[in-house]
Amino acid sequence: MRITTLLVALGLPLFSFAQSLPKLIAKNATLKQIAIGYKFTEGPAVDFAGNVYFTDQPNDQILRWSTRGKIEVFMENAGRANGLYVDNEGNLLACADEKNELWKINPTDKKVEVLVKSFEDKKLNGPNDLWVDPKGGIYFTDPFYKRPYWKRTEKEISQENVYYLTPDYQSLKVVATDFIRPNGIIGTADGKKLYVADINGEKTYVFSIQPDGSLSDRKVFAEMGSDGMTLDHKGNLYLTGRGVTVFNKKGKKIGTIKIPQNWTANVTFGGPNLRTLFITAMQSVYTLDMKVRGTRWKSRKIRKDMKPP
Fold this sequence. Notes:
Number of helices: 1
Structural class: mainly beta
Low-confidence stretches: 1-16, 298-309
Distance between the termini: 37 Å
Strand content: 35-45%
CATH superfamily: TolB, C-terminal domain
Radius of gyration: 18 Å
CATH topology: Neuraminidase
CATH class: Mainly Beta
Order of helices and strands: HEEEEEEEEEEEEEEEEEEEEEEEE
Mean pLDDT: 91
Largest sheet: 4 strands, antiparallel
Shape: globular
């Protein structure tokens, strides 16, 4: 048994494995494996109440962890959903990989509205991860990962881009290109900065967001790619892959949270105070109590239908 696995099993603190992060991780916090037995967990997303949705893409399911600690299946036949995000109205958005679409799911009746089916009459490569800006516009990455359930074998769009869907859902445009394989994406709560990870290019970029949703001032933020990512209220960026690697807002690496799995796919902050880090990794979901918190919906009212079930 690996030492990290043993520590998790015993519920022991992981500070010896994250020595440079005591200012971020809660005192005496332990890495907790709260779920196991899935095929591949991905796409954690928090709603207004702090509940966290995540996907098990091979099993075509979206699941939900409630702030009461219960995990249940939220939706089956979920379009092979990958990345998830809760929009400004409380709807669940999903990168529906089965038919290369972008979905909006009503959290109450689970009715699906397909927001994006194609771009310029060509099938998208495969929407992967997404983020919603304060205006309600949607940024998403579109890498090509050949899936066994697809009939097609080649791209219809040669480049793997970042797209922006306007808040009225009427216009879809390419806002960033020249990546090898864009994957994780996240923006700042003030809507001024957007981070995009080129996982195969082994770089994460930061852009300035313009009033019309276009991007400018492309810069290399970190010499590391990522699968998924999140931000805390201090501006630290959390990248995934071999554990969770944290960079401060100036792009300096400040430490790594080691996860006892071969791959860490994604991460977000959840719970009623957004002070719990949720980590999807292989067949499992982990949590870690933090001193820092997520940044979204600080002053938003909680919709009645978004309260914990």
